[in-house]
Amino acid sequence: MRDRLVAIVERVTVRTRWVVLLTGVVCLPLVVALVALARTHWSPVLDLAMTELRVRDVGTWHTPLIGLPGRVGNFPDQGSHPGPLSFYLLAPTYRLFGSTAWSMELGTVIIHTAAVAAALSLAARRGGRRGCIAVAVLLSVIMRGYGGNVLTQPWNPYLPVIPWIVVLLAVWSVLEGDAAALVVFVAAGSLCAQTHLPYIGLVGGLGGLLVMWLVLRQRIGTPVSMPGLRRWSITAGVLGVLLWLPPVADQLRRTPGNLSMLSDYFRNPPEESIGFRHAARLLLEHLNVVRVASAAVQHSDYFKTVSFSPGGSLIPGVLVVLLWVASVVVAWRLGVRSLVHLHAVIGATLLLEWVAMARIFGKVWYYLTFWAWGVLMLMLFAICWSAAVAVRRWSPARSGGIQRIGAMSGVALLSASTLAFSWSALSLKPPENQLSRTLGAVVGPTANALAAGTGAADGKAGTYLITWTDVAFFGSQGYGLVSELERRGFTVGVANAWRVPVTQQRVLRAADSTAEVHLATGKFIDEWRAKPGVVEVAFVEPRNSEQLALYNTLRDSVISELRSLGLGDLVDEVDSNLFSVQLDPRVPPSLQARIDRMLLLGQPTAVFIAPAGTSES
What we know:
Elements: H1 2-38, H2 46-57, E1 69-72, E2 79-80, H3 85-96, H4 101-151, H5 161-175, H6 181-195, H7 199-219, H8 229-243, H9 245-253, H10 258-267, H11 275-285, H12 289-298, H13 302-307, H14 315-334, H15 337-358, H16 372-394, H17 396-425, H18 433-451, E3 463-469, H19 476-487, E4 491-493, H20 499-502, E5 515-521, H21 524-529, E6 535-540, H22 545-564, H23 578-583, H24 589-601, E7 605-611
Parallel strand pairs: 3-4, 3-5
Antiparallel strand pairs: 1-2, 5-7, 6-7
Helix pairs in contact: 1-4, 1-17, 2-3, 2-19, 3-4, 4-5, 4-16, 4-17, 5-6, 5-7, 5-15, 6-7, 6-8, 7-15, 11-15, 14-16, 15-16, 16-17, 18-19, 22-24
């Protein structure tokens, strides 16, 4: 008995060493990325500013109970993503490292590192050292594909991409008889489902199928040999209840609660979905390994690169599906149970993907299906595994050489992916850096002016209503200004219309404010300069003379083409709401590309301190 316990401890110790070692190797590029990001000051805007506000609220009387606002319902009463788990996970690092914007990026890296460690632990439990190394190769390819910008950014569509892989591996582990993986599934699945709405159907579907499989096997099939199934099932259930208490609490406290709004959204979508036919095409586009491979030669964030230019031939995707079906047949005929189970997980996930894609309505933003690239990589992993097993069974004489080639190829791929990712991470910049730089340039002078009592301001004793008029990015920097001034100790708030994105507790009536702080861009600057009692306290023009000339040239060409296309109704919006022009479905892709260049060049930005109620007058 003693010798058996010693052997188990030694086996676990060796397995843990491999997990720790490979986690360090796979996540090395993320460390490089953090160092690179620390060199550039970051002022989060839009969704990331909203994220920071909620992370800042964790542990206070205003601890968030739901996720970020989403495309659910109608403004200003839109619903949010299901839960706040990502905010809770980011909060400890945020507090420990000075509540800086960079500390959110550090927290994001820690979440992904924990996900990598969990995935490798599951792999080690399934296949020992070889399994751990194989999944490390898989993860290195996936992580390079997503890139440093995605994997360091605490944006809710990006945060779940690696935990999603853990969800898939956890389901596979449960099918293999590992009851402890139920807890991993609940933890990782809850993070995915709470953080970004598209994962609700994916995680919920897999969870439902998993429970159904367990029940059927226990009752009418061969009982599943799962040591500790009862204990781990109870643990997973309790954990799930605890993790979902905040959204339930919100549902009980508010009318309508967020869960009710989400239910209504799913039952009565605001517009017609893209349907199963379009979804099938979209799914095959996300299985186009040729486009991914060609992009991987040139870019480290090749999933994002391919996502930004959808389309292309469906033939590569069809061939991947056929090859995968063939590998399923091989695994079944050879009776490799673990491989059959992995293929079962992939098959179920593909069906759920198809359904999830069919439910998309409106513009098919790339981030709505960002999770699909990880599934493609897992498919290719399973295909390669099936091929290796087939060679070993059907040609034993060659199996030794094939195994050596496979091992060397895996190590080479792991090394190449890690080094290439690390190299690209050296030049990483913060998210929306062009907007962040401009916001950062006006925040300091604004804070100084408020502290000095400029105009209607009363220093930190005052209460300030933040407003904005933006010609380009629908107020993205306005949200950032709220967060940045709050970071500096000022009491700030927004009008009631922004109660969902900026949170209810930050709503401030003009009558209750000391002064108004207004951020204006483009043509709105001159309008605010003409208002009585207003003091301009900050101004920045992010474009140099060459960039300004380029902007004007692009503007003239965009206006000319809009008129030639019979879209004269959009001409005025070029100088007042440029982003909406780009989003208009009537605008052709070539024109959208020119507008995108205009957006990236930026806009002159100014901040004003005005008497309370100036915007309303």
